[in-house]
Amino acid sequence: MVSSKRLTIAIALAGLGGALLTGAPAAIAGPGKASSAEVNIAPGGRGQAKPVYIDQQTNPAGPEVAYEDRGPLRIGDGSGQADPATQQSALTAAAKPRGDAPNSAGGTPQPLIPAPATVRESFNGINQTGGGGAQPSDVNAAVGPTQILETVNRRVTVFTKGTNGTIQCTNTLAGWLGLGTLNVFDPRALYDNFNNRFIIIATTSGVAGQAPRLFLAASTTANACGGYFVYSLTFTGALFPNGTLLDYPYLGQDRVAILSSTNNFNPTYINSTAWSVSKAQVYAGAAVSFPVFQVVGSTAPVTVTGVPIGVTAATFYVAGRPGFGYNLYRMNNSAGPGTTLVLQAQIASNYAAPPRRVIQCGTTGTLDPLDGRIVWAPVQAVNSTFVWFTHGQNIGGFPGIRYGAINTSTNTVTVANARHSNTSDDFNPSLAAFETAANQFYIWLNWAYTDIMVPAGAACVAASRNTSVTVNGVAPGGGVPALIGTDLTLVVGTLTTNNTRFGDYSSVHLDPSPASGTCPAGRTALVAQQFFLGNTNWATRLARISFGPGC
Question: Would the pLDDT of 257 be above 80?
Answer without folding.
Answer: yes
